[in-house]
Design a protein that fits this description.
35% helix, 449 residues, alpha/beta
Length: 449
């Protein structure tokens, strides 16, 4: 099947922005770049996009290499075979992939991709940010990739609708911002979907948690305690939530609620729900709060909320207090105590008439355990604090720290060394441990923390 043939419209790889703000100031012309741009234009003018879309990446690259070689010979362009192959690969990525992002998306060591501009593409490897060698041609090239991502999920992003939350086909989460909100260039932020699912043994091997503390959290999940995972952006909240979910009984019905689906549950009886933004007319929005209310009518054994960030916190507490034990959620906060304060503030967003004491009573009766995770300066994501919610004393929610990470020193390679300290306190949910026959296992794990 040949992809050659005159076409009337430019391919998405060569699409120019409608707004000049998408373009960066022109740099001095580079002879090689000028040759490649001219060759790219000629190749695109001889490609039938419909036919090309039906080919595999390998077949399309083979035909593009033939066409590039033919045109280069005709025009007597001084291009090496490596440069011609690189141009063919670039065109394939633009036409049936995500352009320069393809190299980073295929790199399993990269966990986050941040495109700040055509020549400012940062990545996170092993918890550390670094400037990548990947480059876009200009702001319009970034814009065309963002529009392709939006179109694949039936959304749009342009100057009139300059923000986008989306996910790729592999589950990676994408955020895009266009000018005029992004002043210098369209920006992309991609949180890659982890292909390797970490369990507690994997987290312990990575240094994210001690084996004793892993046993402790595993028991908490099996005992159907309501758990709140707290931490900053990129601290490993979703990874820990996935590890906790692996210990859920396969016979339970689980409903997950997320803004952008990231959870990787292995149980056979899982219903996955995802929010929906408003359409161009501003109608049709479905929020996490809407999904939580609906989930209560779906006979769930457990409800897992990917991240609580607004008034849906009240509905989450209601679910935890109405027989859906073992529910898990995440929240952005700097400590376990801050997690409770933030939860209270989020409830107040939608329940302004509710007294603070009533909200705190709901929180104290709903949440059993709070787990704090942190990405530390050596790049390792660690569980730093595990606290139980005991109850109320006057107007204050009482808590006990069951375990915490204590910094000791930094080795010659810059790795943080420390140890976990346990309180050996008898938890307030001891009756739950006894009910499941795991009280002795809990006390033994506390000794090993």
């Amino acid at each position: 099947m040949k992809v050659f043939g005159r076409r009337d419209t430019p391919a998405v790889a060569n699409e120019l922005p409608k707004n000049a703000a998408l373009q960066r100031p022109a740099a001095p012309p580079d002879p090689l770049a000028t040759q490649l741009a001219s060759l790219r234009e000629r190749v695109l003018n001889q490609i039938d996009p419909t036919t090309a879309a039906e080919l595999s990446a390998t077949a399309l690259q083979r035909q593009l290499e033939q066409l590039i070689n033919q045109i280069a010979d005709e025009d007597r362009l001084e291009l090496s075979g490596r440069e011609q192959t690189g141009l063919a690969e670039e065109l394939v990525n633009d036409m049936i992939g995500y352009g320069p992002l393809e190299l980073l998306l295929r790199d399993d060591q990269v966990t986050d991709i941040m495109v700040n501009g055509p020549s400012r593409v940062f990545v996170e490897r092993h918890g550390k940010l670094e400037l990548s060698t990947v480059r876009f041609r200009d702001g319009g090239h970034i814009a065309s990739i963002a529009r392709k991502i939006a179109a694949q999920i039936g959304r749009r992003i342009d100057e009139s609708s300059p923000m986008l939350d989306a996910r790729l086909t592999d589950g990676s989460r994408v955020n895009a911002v266009f000018p005029p909100l992004a002043l210098d260039s369209p920006c992309l932020s991609i949180r890659k979907f982890a292909r390797r699912r970490l369990d507690f043994s994997g987290l312990a091997a990575n240094g994210s948690i001690s084996r004793g503390l892993a046993q402790l959290l595993g028991i908490a999940a099996r005992c159907r305690l309501n758990i709140l995972v707290s931490g900053g952006t990129g601290s490993g909240k979703t990874t820990l939530l996935n590890a906790l979910s692996q210990l859920i009984d396969p016979g339970e019905r689980i409903v997950t609620i997320e803004d952008a689906a990231e959870l990787q549950l292995q149980q056979p009886h899982v219903v996955r729900l995802e929010t929906r933004p408003p359409n161009l007319e501003g109608a049709g929005q479905v929020t996490q709060r809407d999904l939580l209310r609906n989930a209560l009518r779906m006979r769930p054994d457990r409800i897992i909320v990917g991240e609580v960030r607004g008034p849906e916190a009240f509905d989450m507490l209601q679910a935890m207090n109405t027989g859906h034990d073992g529910s898990i959620s995440t929240v952005h906060a700097n400590s376990t105590r801050d997690a409770l304060i933030r939860t209270e503030n989020m409830v107040l967003m939608g329940q302004l008439s509710l007294p603070s004491r009533a909200i705190r009573i709901q929180i104290a009766s709903a949440i059993d355990l709070i787990v704090q995770v942190e990405r530390m300066r050596d790049g390792v994501r660690r569980v730093t604090q595990v606290s139980e919610v005991c109850g109320m004393e006057g107007e204050v929610i009482t808590m006990n720290d069951l375990a915490s990470f204590e910094f000791e020193r930094e080795d010659s390679q810059g790795h943080i060394l420390g140890r976990y300290v346990s309180s050996n306190l008898r938890p307030s949910f001891t009756s739950r441990l006894e009910y499941f026959g795991l009280e002795r296992a809990w006390m033994s794990a506390m000794q090993d923390v």
